[in-house]
Design brief:
Elements lengths: L7 H7 L8 H11 L7 E6 L4 H14 L2 E6 L13 H7 L4 E6 L6 H14 L2 E6 L3 H5 L6 H15 L4 E6 L4 E5 L7 E3 L9 E2 L4 E4 L3 E8 L2 E2 L1 H7 L7 E6 L2 E6 L3 H10 L9 E7 L11 H4 L4 E7 L3 H4 L8 E5 L3 E5 L2 E5 L2 E2 L4
Parallel strand pairs: 1-2, 1-3, 3-4, 4-8
Antiparallel strand pairs: 5-6, 5-17, 6-10, 7-9, 9-14, 10-12, 11-16, 12-13, 14-15, 15-16, 17-18, 18-19
Helix pairs in contact: 2-3
Length: about 350
């Protein structure tokens, strides 16, 4: 029996009306990025704020004819969640595909990690759409992900054999990453495979760096729940200094941003450690919009402090936190080869 026929939540969500402008992005997610088949079961996790977008995605699942189960977080437990509800974890165990379309709240990273632990173990094709909104559905989710994938593959070919990557900006960034050959690079271009779940919209290659040093002017966005609070940082950038892979300083004219970021990156012993070094490859994006889900795919360098996603990169350390930081208009050199100038790739997709 199709799972959608037995769930009241499914029926309620399927009945939600939604703006048809959401359809192209939803169709891209289901058919291009996840390639959902009629014989597969899909777990859809959403919340009250994101219900309309989830309804557009569900409509596309129904067109495909796949079985699905929808979970609305607020119907199961108060938020912020300390843990992901066991019924959701149990449902994931029998799914081949999952979609997480939810607005982030403070201190919920643990519950998301519980979900991705199951995703990683069962090799579920998982679309991670934290803080997805209408603007992202109309912009980043309408990208030609096959084109983004081609460019990502070219970047991947260069960085996977590189020793050093240097990134600078006119705003003052001068950052050097020495790479560890023991750590794997991963491509999350929007084409999601069982080997690695991916954010949607996609468009990045990343690894755990060996050693990062230098200065980074964050005039784009910071991640997790701070993104919704502070948005686009172009007018009040956060300037950080990194030495030996550790955050040493963070300064901004917005003292609340400065203080919140510092507290977040000192949650545990590795929260201030660079766990991710990434290059955004979604060339369909025109500018930073103040939403980390899309902005970390914007062409340029971004890094993250905290959890290094060791199950994928091979890093052997852990953190309970993970926060991305994004800048604008980078020049990037992979060893001695310049691949980006003022935010534009010098590679053809």
């Amino acid at each position: 029996m199709n799972v959608s026929s037995v769930s009241q939540t499914n029926r309620n969500l399927a009945a939600v009306s939604f703006d048809p402008e959401l359809t192209p992005g939803a169709r891209n997610a289901v058919n291009v990025c996840l390639r959902v088949r009629p014989d597969e079961k899909v777990t859809v996790i959403t919340d009250e704020v994101t219900r309309e977008i989830a309804a557009a995605i569900v409509r596309e699942l129904e067109v495909v004819g796949s079985a699905y189960r929808v979970w609305v977080l607020e119907e199961l437990a108060p938020r912020p969640l300390s843990d992901l509800h066991q019924e959701i974890l149990d449902d994931l165990e029998s799914s081949q595909v999952s979609i997480f379309a939810v607005q982030a709240q403070a201190n919920e990273l643990k519950s998301r990690m519980q979900m991705t632990d199951v995703v990683n173990r069962r090799k579920i094709r998982h679309a991670h759409m934290v803080n997805i909104n209408r603007q992202i559905m109309l912009e980043g989710m309408r990208a030609d992900f096959l084109k983004v994938d081609r460019l990502s593959a070219k970047v991947m070919e260069l960085v996977s054999r590189a020793l050093v990557i240097r990134a600078t900006t006119a705003a003052g960034t001068d950052l050097t990453a020495k790479l560890n050959p023991k750590y794997r690079w991963l491509k999350t271009s929007g084409i999601i495979s069982p080997d690695k779940w991916g954010n949607l919209p996609g468009g990045e290659v990343f690894t755990t760096p060996g050693l990062v040093n230098g200065k980074l002017v964050i005039d784009g966005v910071v991640g997790d729940w701070l993104c919704a609070k502070f948005g686009d940082l172009q007018q009040t950038p956060l300037t950080i200094r990194i030495k030996g892979n550790r955050l040493m300083e963070a300064h901004s004219s917005n003292r609340e941003l400065e203080n919140d970021f510092w507290r977040y990156t000192h949650t545990d012993e590795n929260s201030d450690r660079v766990g991710e070094f990434a290059i955004g490859t979604n060339i369909e994006l025109k500018d930073v919009i103040g939403q980390i889900l899309q902005d970390e795919k914007f062409p340029g360098v971004h890094i993250a402090f905290g959890n290094p996603y060791g199950a994928h990169t091979g890093a052997e350390w852990y953190s309970s936190t993970h926060i991305d930081v994004v800048g604008r208009k980078f020049d990037i050199w992979v060893d001695d080869v310049q691949i980006m100038q003022n935010g534009r790739f010098l590679l053809e997709p």
